[in-house]
Each structure stands twice: as C-alpha cells, then as structure tokens.
C-alpha cells in the first residue's frame, strides 16, 4: 500500500508523514510546494518517507485550483491507495478541489484514519463538534485532510528529492498582500495552563481581570469565538473551538463561557477543567471538573487577592 | 484600489447556496446508543449560509443585480427558504430528494451545480457559507468551483466586488490574505463577514410573493445514481467526556477561596 502525504508547510508534511506511519504502509511518498531545510529532510526521513516530490511553489501561490490541479497530476502518476493532506485552512480547500477533480471519496478534517474492511475509514467531528462520524472511503485513491498533532518525531535517512512540474493551467487567485497579526504569536496548542474568556465579560476592558489571573499563574489567554470573532476583543489566534485552536493544557480555566459544542471541541482534551459561570445550568457545568456558580466580577478580584498571597507574589 | 471600487455597471448575478440543517445547539444524544436524536431536532438555515445571503443582498444593494437562493436536501422546507427571500434575495430554487439524506460533499456539490445550471446559468458569483453547521466539511465551495472550473476564495471576512473582478480579505493561519480574482468565482464566507439582518414583517410579507420553485431530479438532469455518496457515513455517536462535575455554589468569599485552592492544586509547579 502506497500513501501520498502533502501539506502547505514542511512541518505539516512531517506531521502528516508521522501520522501515516500508524497505517503501516509499504511506501510513503511526500509532496510539498515549499523547499525543505536539511534538518526538515532528516525529520521527513525519520517519518519513514523514501521520496519527497517538490512541486514548484508557483502552484501554491496561485491558489487552491492550481495546487489541486498539480497534485491531481501527481496522484495519477503515483497511483497511491491513500492521500493524506494536512488540514491547514489552505490544505482543506486544496483537498476539496482535489477530491472533486479525482472523483475520490474524501473526508475533511479527519482526526483519525484507519484501515477498514473495504477501504479506509476516517473519523471526524460533526454536528457542532459534539459527535464523531465514522466515514467509509471506498475509492482508490481515498482522500482525507487530517487534523492530527505531531507524535514523536525523529531524524532519519534523508529522502531523495525529485522535482515535478506538470505544467498545468488552472483558474488563478492573486495574493495582493498578507496582513500579519499585530501581536506576537501565541502557541496555545502547546500551553500547559490556559485562562479562557467568553461572553460572561461585558466589556473589553474587563478582560484585564482574566489577564491578571493568567499572569499570576503563568497561563496563556484563550477565548470562545464571539470574543475574537464578532467582538474582536482578542486576536483570532486565541480562539479555541471547532474553527479555531484545539488545545490540551493541564489546566483549563473557563471564565464566563457557557460551553456551546463548538467551543467544547477545542478544549475537551484538557486534563483538568475549572469553570466559572453565573448560570448553574450552562452546558459547561457537565464539561468541568470544578464548576463555580458565581459572578465573575465578584469572584475574580477575590480569587486574585488570595492567589497573590498564597503564591507569594 | 480604483479597479475594485463598487461600480454600478457590474450588476452581478449572485447565487447563494443555503443548506438546511438540524439545529445542533439543541440536539441531544440518545442516553444509551449515543446517536443524535435527529427526529426530535428543529431545523434551521445553516449559520454561515445566512452570512452568505446577507453578503449577497449587500452587494445587490450597492451594485444592483439579482440574488438567487439555491437549496438542496432530503426535504427542503419552504418556510426556511422564505426567510432568505425575506432577507432580500429575489428568487429561490429548491431540490428535495430523499437520496440526499446520505449525501457527501460530492453528491451535494453535484446537486447544487445541476440546480444552478438550470436556474441561473449566467451567474457571476456563487456565495456559500465556508462550512455547514452539521457536517462542517468545508467542501461545497471548493467543489463547486472545481465543477465550474473557476477560481474560488474561501474563509472570506470582507468582500468587494468590482467590474468583472473581486477583492477579498480571507483569514488563514498566517494572518489575513488580501486576494483578487476574476469573475465568475466562488466565495465562501464565515461568521465574521457581517451580521445577517432580521427581516421586518413587511419584508416577510413581501417574500411570500417572490418566486420559489421546486425542481425535481429530472428537471435538472440528474438520476438517483448520480447522487450516490463517494464517502459513506457508517455511524454517528456523541462524544463522552469524563469529568468530575463538582459544582460549587454559595457565598462568593468562600467560593473564591475554593477556586484559588483548585487552581493551585492543578496548575503544576510554580513558575
């Protein structure tokens, strides 16, 4: 069985290749649009990849149509049983077009792919993130965009690198400008402590209460979608949930978050969950280890004072 | 900027794809089987698709043109389609067929494309929600663009339509990409692009008179075989989380004390 793995960025290709190992494939070939460093090549080798096929970056730069067209040509040439593409936002849109082009069975944003009786079986979150759908992919190739986290990585024999330019045309989208986020990047996926804020806060200035608590215990700040989306009080990269980050800290403190399924899917893997909410019946109550029914504006200043004393700062 | 400014002469024909889904916010799993209890669920227009309708109506208000709503599914409800017409869409075409209950992204896109080819073949822009409330698959927009062999822009949170061209701001992991492409094109939008309007009573009444046409598979040149899913859902089960579920209520001073204790107990080593 041959597996083709691909992704927008080198580290995503490496993550996907490491994930593909769990399927015990006979051969893993990687495809990428961006150049790999020597170290990244060694990591790709460590993931069991024998060959890296480099597709010119111009395809990625002209949008999902061109990227999918180029990948489709490669799939036809290699004839893999399974194609796994890392589910970055661009990866997902490329995979959608690729599946349509190849008329292949496709599962998007799968968190697991397994060998089934007939073909491959993918698991993905549906119905707001509160449910798992098991989807059978009975075509060759089968396609999945995968939202998987990096398992143990190791260095190995560097794979051979081949160039592949199919010389194919596709409808283009021109990137005029990329506006980078203003603030320094936060890596919520790797944070061990997260203080997360929701609609229980009435004004943007009031988030200072959460920020003070976070600073005191050394936590990162996260939020539910309305805070970064509709209200824009925090940057999008702090958004935890179905369309945002999936986090797995040791301790997750949810402040004023009611616990819509779309948020829960982003924090469900937290080791311990403490929540503060004024509504005793909010869904977050059953998703918490410790649920405090209280007014944020009253309990937080008191808690901060107590923590200051106990932590000696 | 000049080329992208709204120009009255563009008058784009806009198709908006709207999916009707169960209201996942109200959905409860069966206590034993953990399967979603779909028969008891309410139906609604998928959230992001209403953002797409709103955006289409805003473009029409600035540039003129026409907004056509298209909805496909096992049993499309006219009442919900009328909501989109009340928001300002001009006409609607729906395709109901029981075979679409098992539809995957491929079948959905095929059905939508067939309806669009029949109902509004000379479209300039197809607008979709970036993903649906129930499947969250992010497939419809890119697949439609592939079927029609046109460019698409996903995850759009700001859109400007110019003369045979569009400019869009799209949110990806690295920031906001400002992109441009020629029309016709497919655009998918998220929650951030706008706030869908709540139609007034007057608009709701006016919507009753707008054309809403039911099409059959035969009308759009499809057979049931065409709508066989490539990806087949075997099972859907609720996720179970194991939590202690200890609830603390009472005087805030005591609660603050307990909250501080719990935080210290679970925060790991001090900084």
Automatic annotation (TrEMBL), chain A:
Keywords, sorted A to Z: Electron transport, FAD, Flavoprotein, Transport
Domain (Electron transfer flavoprotein alpha/beta-subunit N-terminal) ranges: 3-180
GO molecular function: electron transfer activity; flavin adenine dinucleotide binding
GO biological process annotation, one example: fatty acid beta-oxidation using acyl-CoA dehydrogenase
A Pfam family of this chain: ETF_alpha
Gene3D superfamilies according to UniProt: HUPs, TPP-binding domain
Family: Belongs to the ETF alpha-subunit/FixB family.
Stated name of the protein: Electron transfer flavoprotein subunit alpha/FixB family protein
């Amino acid at each position: 069985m041959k597996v083709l793995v691909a992704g927008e960025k080198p580290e995503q290709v490496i993550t996907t290749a490491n994930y593909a190992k769990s399927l015990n494939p006979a051969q893993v070939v990687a495809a990428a649009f961006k150049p790999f460093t020597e170290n990244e090549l060694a990591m790709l080798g460590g993931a069991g990849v024998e060959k890296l096929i480099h597709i010119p970056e111009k395809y990625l730069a002209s949008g999902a149509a061109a990227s999918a067209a180029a990948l489709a040509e490669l799939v036809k040439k290699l004839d893999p049983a399974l194609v796994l593409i890392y589910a970055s936002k661009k990866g997902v849109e490329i995979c959608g077009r690729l599946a349509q082009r190849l008329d292949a069975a496709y599962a998007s944003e799968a968190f697991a792919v397994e060998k089934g009786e007939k073909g491959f079986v993918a698991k993905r979150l549906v119905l707001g993130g509160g449910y798992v759908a098991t989807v059978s992919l009975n075509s060759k190739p089968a396609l999945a965009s995968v939202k998987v986290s990096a398992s143990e990585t190791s260095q190995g024999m560097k794979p051979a690198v081949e160039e592949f330019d199919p010389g194919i045309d596709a409808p283009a989208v021109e990137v005029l400008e990329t506006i980078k986020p203003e603030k320094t990047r936060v890596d919520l996926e790797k944070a061990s402590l997260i203080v997360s804020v929701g609609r229980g806060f009435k004004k943007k200035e009031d988030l200072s209460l959460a920020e003070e608590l976070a600073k005191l215990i050394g936590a990162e700040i996260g939020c539910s979608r309305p805070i970064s989306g509709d209200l824009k009080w925090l940057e999008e990269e702090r958004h935890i949930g179905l369309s945002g980050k999936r986090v797995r800290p040791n301790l997750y403190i949810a402040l004023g978050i009611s616990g819509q399924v779309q948020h829960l899917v982003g924090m469900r893997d937290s080791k311990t969950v403490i929540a503060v909410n004024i509504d005793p019946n909010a869904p977050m109550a059953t998703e918490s280890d410790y649920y405090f029914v209280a007014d944020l504006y009253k309990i937080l200043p008191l808690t901060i004072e107590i923590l200051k004393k106990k932590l000696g700062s | 900027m000049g080329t992208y400014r709204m120009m009255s002469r563009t008058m784009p024909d806009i198709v908006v794809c709207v999916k009707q889904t169960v209201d996942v916010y109200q959905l409860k799993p069966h206590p034993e089987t953990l399967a979603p209890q779909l028969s008891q669920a309410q139906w609604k227009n998928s959230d992001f698709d209403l953002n797409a309708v709103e955006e289409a109506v805003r473009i029409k208000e600035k540039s003129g043109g026409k907004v056509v709503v298209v909805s496909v599914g096992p049993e499309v409800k006219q009442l919900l389609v009328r909501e989109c017409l009340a928001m300002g869409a001009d006409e609607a075409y729906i395709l109901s067929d029981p075979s679409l209950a098992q539809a995957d992204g491929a079948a959905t896109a095929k059905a939508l494309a067939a309806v669009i080819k029949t109902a509004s073949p000379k479209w300039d822009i197809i607008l979709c929600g970036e993903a649906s409330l129930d499947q969250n698959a992010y497939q419809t927009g890119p697949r439609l663009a592939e079927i029609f062999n046109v460019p698409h822009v996903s995850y759009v949170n700001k859109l400007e339509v110019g003369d045979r061209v569009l400019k869009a701001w799209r949110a990806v992991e690295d920031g906001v990409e400002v992109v441009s492409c020629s029309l016709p094109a497919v655009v998918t939008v998220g929650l951030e692009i706008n706030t869908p309007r709540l139609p007034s009573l007057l608009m709701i009444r006016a919507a009753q008179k707008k054309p809403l046409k039911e099409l059959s598979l035969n009308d759009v040149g499809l057979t049931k075989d065409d709508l066989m899913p490539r990806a087949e859902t075997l099972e859907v089960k609720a996720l179970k989380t194991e939590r202690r579920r200890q609830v603390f209520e009472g005087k805030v001073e005591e609660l603050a004390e307990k909250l501080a204790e719990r935080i210290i107990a679970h925060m790991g080593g001090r900084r």
